[in-house]
Amino acid sequence: MARMATTRRVAISTAAAWLFGFLIFFPILWMGLASFKTELEAFAIPPSFLFFHWTTENYATVQERSDYLHHAMNSIIIAGGSTLIALLIAIPAAWSMAFSPTKRTKDILLWMLSTKMMPPVGVLVPIYLIYKTFGLLDSRIGLVLILCLGNLPIVIWMLFTYFKEIPRDILEAARMDGATIGRELVYVLTPMAIPGLASTLLLNLILAWNEAFWTLNLSTSSAAPLTTFIASYSSPEGLFWAKLSAASTLAIAPILVLGWFSQKQLVRGLTFGAVK
Amino acid sequence: MGQITLQGVQKSFGPVHIIKGADLDIADGSFVVFVGPSGCGKTTLLRLIAGLEDVSGGKILIDGKNVVDTPPAKRGLSMVFQSYALYPHMSVRGNIGFGLKMAGLPKGEINRKVEAAAATLNLTPYLDRKPRELSGGQRQRVAIGRAIVREPKAFLFDEPLSNLDAALRVQMRIEVTRLQKQLGTTAIYVTHDQVEAMTMADKIVVLNGGKIEQYGSPLELYERPANLFVAGFIGSPKMNFVTGELALQRGAATIGVRPEHLKIERDGAGGWQGTISVAEHLGSDTFLYVDAGPLGMLTARYIGELSLHAGDRVSLVPDPQRIHRFDDGGNALRG
Q1: Which residue among A40, A83, A184, A238 has its CA within the 20 to 30 Å range from the CA of A133?
Q2: What CATH number does domain B4-231 carry, 1.25.40.10, 3.40.50.300, 3.40.1390.20, 1.10.472.10?
Q3: Partner B contacted by A103 (CB < 8 A)
Q4: Does A122 touch chain B (CB under 8 A)?
Q5: pLDDT tens digits, residue range B259-302?
Q6: Which structural domain, as residue segments, surrounds residue A149?
Q7: How many independent structural domains does chain A possess?
Q8: DSSP helix, strand, coil percent of chain A (3-state; round to 5)
Q9: Could you tell me how many CB contacts below 8 A there are between chain A and chain B?
Q10: Does residue B13 sit at the A interface (CB-CB below 8 Å)?
Q11: What ipTM did this prediction achieve?
């Protein structure tokens, strides 16, 4: 009797999990499907789920009308560059806060996080003017800079929590064993922190890849990443659902693939410390 | 060589004085145990010697050289941590050899030394395993291996056995003692377990509230405790203390008698009368907790089995040769 109840419970929760997963995944699926429809079928009511005229013409049109590779390259440079620079700044920062905290460390951490609570639109105008003055508008460097600074608090926080998990004793043992700070970093701390570093890197890459507010407002064409590329398909001349879907599918494809292959790392990163 | 001398060593964290001036002479090759209740500063003192903390005052001499400004690695000491602190991503071989690698020894020599250390500690079959694949005792031995392979001037042990279960702890206690005697290297060992202190040490340092209460051999501490604290801390069960009239008769503020120095008499008229409130029968020993009225609770130990039970009346007769006397400052009175 008890066993039957358990089996039923497992079945119900499994079904619920699948349902929930499907609900979350549905918009992406719908977008993928719409990208293979004709413009008319894309907003037909009732919508057709699988039985429509499959076509790849949207992808061809998108490729014709705009340079996907150019925008993809911008996305890679902006997301990758901002992540790498953020890590370079965050590793020593998190290191010092985790291993030689001062009275103010907690306050600094909170203050950094508080900057994320402000709506970015509040500083859009000053940032825009600064960028204009320094000639950073529509430049890759400008976008790398703003995304790097924007994500820095999160990167530092994540690394700080990972570093905190590393027992002090081990670092002291390394010091007793004659390791200098540099060698301690190379031989002991970094190998132990690799899972944390990897998931921070992945998460930040995804955040930077998907960031739309600053990239849309600070770039137009030459530095425009995929977010701008998508936005260009919702134009004043009307919405072209099928083409917009094709563009969006192309834009999220790389990060989706990356996420799929690193999901273990990501989940571990997000639950690090919670489960031992 | 590994002679360590402390001269007026002090340590404060902000306004809190952890070590209030410690003077100590540790002879080369001796096994010295720091013992005391938690928070007495024993681990801090060890970390000061290691160089993991900076002293706030005083000198630490290793072989006559003041090392207070020398970084830990250059002091020629090695440390075994309570948590073992093994490098989780390295094999046993990597863990033991890490210090030698940092010292820039050639690979062949590192391997030779690591294998010799592993053989001493019965770790040879595990050399290529990771720490997480080892049992607690094996991890402990790796931590010790990492310490001995560097042939240091002295070993520093920070409660190394406290994470092991009771049986393993006794076994490792014997192994560590044997190894230290065999290598002849100075060892400083921190513990809160007075049995470890009594069994392992050549000399014990009893610490309390950041001060050294007494420094002497285990039996010296047992037979001639310098003050009330040491008298109460060393020995198990604790020494009985009696104040008041009985103490004054002997010219002291407090007198102390160890449980094993009380003779138990069933219906004797002499001695200290009382009623047994708890009797513990271990077979090898019998412990009686006796309610002695105005004298308070007294503990008596009998070697062997004694058929007495709660509620029985007994009288306890102290061995006159074994009564410790203390003045009102708590210091021992001699003579």
Answers
A1: A83
A2: 3.40.50.300
A3: no
A4: no
A5: 999 999 887 677 889 999 999 999 999 999 999 988 889 999 99
A6: 66-232
A7: 1
A8: 75, 0, 20
A9: 56
A10: no
A11: 0.82
